[in-house]
């Protein structure tokens, strides 16, 4: 029994269990699920595909996020990320998060507009947005409790859906008392 408890502890600590991600997907450091689809697409087709699956092209905020994507890349040699750059200027992520990490090959983003990642090296380059590549989607992980909703910016008390034992469950969240994020059972 003690051995079983220790094994479960290490599985939870080191993230071997993917929680609420689909089979074959992994969580990144933002607690979102990432998936690489082997489907040659332009950048806009790739973003449309991800949006249709309740996500966006993936944003990468650190080396750990990039490693997560490379783990699920399968046979894809490269894949679109959610980055777009203006020639010689600032880049942005399509999901609106800060472009706070850069991993461009040779430190140079290039002169094209859309960001693509190389699976083998993990480095990025820019390509014409009309080129084709595999698709790296990032999908928000299912909310586990009212605190997750609160962290996502939902501050009104009311009914919310959370994942309980793998099943979507409607609960009442108190977002006001003692800092908020409490599940109320009646």
Automatic annotation (TrEMBL):
<dbReference type="InterPro" id="IPR016187">
    <property type="entry name" value="CTDL_fold"/>
</dbReference>
<dbReference type="InterPro" id="IPR036056">
    <property type="entry name" value="Fibrinogen-like_C"/>
</dbReference>
<feature type="domain" description="C-type lectin">
    <location>
        <begin position="29"/>
        <end position="138"/>
    </location>
</feature>
<keyword id="KW-0732">Signal</keyword>
<dbReference type="InterPro" id="IPR001304">
    <property type="entry name" value="C-type_lectin-like"/>
</dbReference>
<dbReference type="Pfam" id="PF00059">
    <property type="entry name" value="Lectin_C"/>
</dbReference>
<feature type="signal peptide">
    <location>
        <begin position="1"/>
        <end position="19"/>
    </location>
</feature>
<protein>
    <recommendedName>
        <fullName>C-type lectin domain-containing protein</fullName>
    </recommendedName>
</protein>
<dbReference type="InterPro" id="IPR002181">
    <property type="entry name" value="Fibrinogen_a/b/g_C_dom"/>
</dbReference>
<keyword id="KW-1015">Disulfide bond</keyword>
<feature type="domain" description="Fibrinogen C-terminal">
    <location>
        <begin position="137"/>
        <end position="186"/>
    </location>
</feature>
<dbReference type="Pfam" id="PF00147">
    <property type="entry name" value="Fibrinogen_C"/>
</dbReference>
<dbReference type="InterPro" id="IPR050976">
    <property type="entry name" value="Snaclec"/>
</dbReference>
<dbReference type="InterPro" id="IPR016186">
    <property type="entry name" value="C-type_lectin-like/link_sf"/>
</dbReference>
<dbReference type="InterPro" id="IPR014716">
    <property type="entry name" value="Fibrinogen_a/b/g_C_1"/>
</dbReference>
């Amino acid at each position: 029994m003690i051995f079983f408890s220790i094994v479960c502890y290490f599985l939870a600590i080191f993230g071997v269990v993917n929680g609420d991600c689909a089979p074959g997907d992994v969580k990144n450091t933002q607690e979102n699920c990432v998936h690489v689809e082997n489907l040659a697409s332009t950048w806009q087709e790739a973003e449309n595909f991800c949006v249709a699956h309740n996500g966006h092209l993936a944003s990468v905020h650190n080396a750990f996020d990039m490693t997560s994507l490379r783990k699920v890349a399968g046979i894809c040699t490269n894949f679109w990320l959610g980055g777009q750059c203006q020639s010689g200027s600032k880049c942005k992520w399509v999901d609106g998060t800060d472009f706070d990490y850069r991993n461009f090959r040779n430190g140079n983003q290039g002169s094209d507009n859309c960001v693509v990642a190389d699976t083998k090296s993990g480095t990025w380059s820019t390509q014409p947005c009309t080129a084709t590549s595999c698709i790296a989607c990032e999908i928000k992980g299912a909310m586990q409790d009212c605190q997750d909703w609160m962290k996502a910016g939902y501050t009104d008390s009311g009914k919310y859906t959370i994942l309980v034992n793998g099943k979507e469950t409607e609960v009442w969240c108190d977002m006001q008392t003692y800092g908020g994020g409490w599940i109320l059972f009646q």
